[in-house]
Specification:
Layout lengths: L10 E5 L4 H12 L3 E6 L11 E5 L5 H11 L6 E4 L16 H26 L6 E6 L12 H21 L9 E8 L6 H4 L18 H10 L8 E4 L5 E3 L19
Length: about 260
């Protein structure tokens, strides 16, 4: 069920937008006057939640996800953001991960993106100005490291999927000019509920970015439909500024892990 009415002149969709970076994007788009629908397992809460519509969505249930996405894309969409992510229960060597963890990472990080594209691209092409699709990427795409094999593989595949789509939009295909694709990733760790579940209670988050850091870029994309940014991979800094990833590779967040000792 979709709740909480918003503005009605331009519509946006954020998959994985109840918390984290997706929530930062959703709040920025709502503040810019877009009618924003969030698809996520939990409802948006806290300041600004009343400006967001919400539909309960579990990306590991593809049949129901397809129906929910179809309903969200029944009318033209000005902007779509895919921010849903499954990191895993914690960093672990490949030998310590099971197939259920791998499948969940694929379902959320990759297959959910494919389903979202499949159901929303036509709605993005039905707007007067070019629609914009924002994919939330990660430094792990460039810095595969120990303990993150499934996360790295699924996020790298997602980035390649969006790169391929972006190149198709620059071709001579009919309607190609009606859609722009942008990818963005944080320059450092972001203080989110998902990260907090993996940290000690007394952890110091003062050096971490916040989801609001993505607000300026989100507002820029809403205002310009991504003009001049089609196909870009952007690194977003804590102050809200951004730069192309080609200017400097993102800093790796990998760390050395040791093999689990068998009992």
């Amino acid at each position: 069920m979709v709740t909480a009415p918003g503005q009605d002149h331009r519509r946006a969709l954020v998959v994985g937008g109840s918390t984290g970076i997706g929530r930062g994007v959703a709040d920025a788009w709502a503040a810019a006057g877009l009618d924003v629908t969030v698809l996520s397992r939990s409802a948006p809460a806290g300041p600004g939640a009343d400006r967001l519509r919400w539909a309960a969505t579990d990306l590991t249930d593809p049949d129901r996800v397809t129906d929910t996405l179809a309903a969200a894309a029944a009318e033209p969409l000005h902007a779509v953001c895919y921010s849903a992510v499954h990191y895993g229960s914690g960093r672990a060597l490949f030998q310590d991960c099971d197939v259920s963890e791998w499948r969940r990472q694929i379902d959320v990080n990759l297959h959910g993106l494919w389903l979202t594209l499949d159901r929303t691209l036509s709605a993005l092409r039905r707007t007067e100005s070019p629609g914009v699709f924002l994919g939330v990427s990660s430094e792990v795409v460039y810095n595969a490291g120990p303990g993150r094999s499934g996360y790295a593989a699924s996020k790298a595949a997602a980035a390649a999927l969006l790169d391929s789509l972006a190149q198709e939009q620059t071709s001579e295909a009919p309607g190609a000019e009606a859609l722009r694709v942008v990818q963005a990733l944080p320059a450092g760790m972001v203080d989110t509920p998902g990260i907090r579940r993996r940290r000690p209670e007394d952890f110091d988050y003062s050096a971490y970015m916040t989801p609001a850091s993505f607000g300026p870029l989100a507002r820029e994309l809403a205002a310009t439909s991504g003009a001049g940014l089609h196909g870009a991979h952007l690194v977003v800094d804590g102050d809200g500024s951004w730069r192309p990833v080609t200017e400097a590779m993102p800093v790796s967040q990998s760390r050395t892990l040791t093999a689990r000792t068998a009992p």
